[in-house]
Amino acid sequence: NSSSDLRMCDVRVHPVTKRLARNFDGLLQGIDLLGSNHVVVTLALKTQHRQTAMSPSMLEERKERQAELVERMKCFMAHFDARNVWCDFIA
User: Fold this and answer.
1) What is the rounded CA–CA span in Å between residue 14 and residue 34?
2) Closest by alpha carbon to 91, among 76, 2, 83?
3) Residues 6+ apart with CB under 8 A from 53
4) H/E element, 45
5) d(CA 35, CA 29)
6) pLDDT tops 50 at residue 23
7) What are the pLDDT digits (tens) for 34-43?
């Protein structure tokens, strides 16, 4: 296991409001976020570099953390797929 495997991931669950659903218009074809029971889950990793301060080290860290988050999201999605529960992610 690498040290990134042990890195804490902040997970938050948000109810889908009308305002939040508007942000997803056109992204999830055929999915009615307000018409059924849906939530939005966010995953976040702590970084060493401020993500607003453009620098080569920040860009490298962003690339690494993005790849790590995508892998975690794939695992998260597989968990729900195995239970026949719809789940998708946007990276």
Assistant:
1) 13
2) 76
3) none
4) strand 39-45
5) 14
6) yes
7) 888 889 998 8
